[in-house]
Write a structure and sequence with these properties.
Blueprint (H helix, E strand, L loop, with lengths): L20 H13 L11 E11 L5 E8 L10 E2 L2 E3 L6 H13 L8 E4 L3 E2 L4 E11 L11 E8 H4 L6 E5 L2 E10 L3 E4 L2 H13 L18
Parallel strand pairs: 1-7
Antiparallel strand pairs: 1-2, 1-4, 2-3, 2-8, 5-7, 6-7, 9-10, 10-11
């Protein structure tokens, strides 16, 4: 499923949406120039997620978003990036690629990794390392029903819609909550929204944008 309701950002020409080797090179170059901020996972559960770049509708770029299965113990039914807790002895890259295989059946080697974004600490005690991965034009995925209810391809055109993101103040925290709008009535919340927003800023635009100051809605703190 793809969301296509957004108008393109004025700063990005239509050709920049095309999923091709020029796009891959552009994103990889932006990530190489990005001065990533790592964080210590001491006293936190270390997880990794894959921001997986695929071909969307009409040959345009998109990223993979899943809807978590209703049987999951935590955050059931919510949107999420493929990912999870890193196993003992794994690197974040190895963990993210393993989760891609387990959740959506996508088998990629480490040379598919374009770069890493900032570590993001959640209110629920996780340190998440986002890994940006190029899946290739022929990527085929199949949801693991134990973990994933649906797989979505969210287009870069939708990611760049002019009315998104929203930054919402809440009384429970000094950190504004980030929300990425999707379609007519859906929204993506932090931590996923924060990491996807940073990918947009860094990967697509080459901006040195930070997201550690952006918070999560209270219901995500558990």
């Amino acid at each position: 499923m793809s969301f296509l309701s957004g108008e393109p950002n004025a700063a990005m020409e239509n050709t920049h949406y095309i999923y091709d080797e020029a796009m891959r090179a552009r994103i990889a170059a932006n990530l190489r120039q990005f001065e990533r901020t790592p964080a210590s996972a001491k006293n936190l559960k270390h997880a990794a997620v894959a921001i997986t770049l695929v071909r969307g509708d009409d040959g345009e770029g998109a990223y993979v978003l899943t809807r978590r299965a209703s049987r999951m113990n935590t955050h059931a039914g919510q949107f999420a990036l493929p990912g999870g807790r890193i196993d003992d002895g794994e690197t974040p890259i190895e963990g993210a690629l393993r989760e891609l295989r387990e959740e959506v059946g996508l088998h990629l080697a480490e040379d598919a990794v374009l770069g890493l974004l900032d570590d993001y600490q959640t209110q629920s005690g996780y340190l998440i390392t986002p890994i940006v991965v190029w899946a290739g034009a022929g990527a085929e995925m199949k949801a693991n029903p134990e973990e994933v209810a649906r797989i979505h391809r969210i287009t870069f055109r939708e990611l760049n819609r002019p009315d998104s993101p929203e930054f919402v103040p809440i009384p429970e925290s000094e950190r504004p909550v980030i929300r990425l709008l999707m379609g007519d009535d859906d929204a993506l919340h932090a931590p996923t929204a924060a990491m996807v927003y940073q990918f947009r800023e860094v990967g697509l635009y080459g901006r040195q944008t930070r997201v550690a100051h952006l918070g999560e809605p209270v219901w995500a703190w558990r």
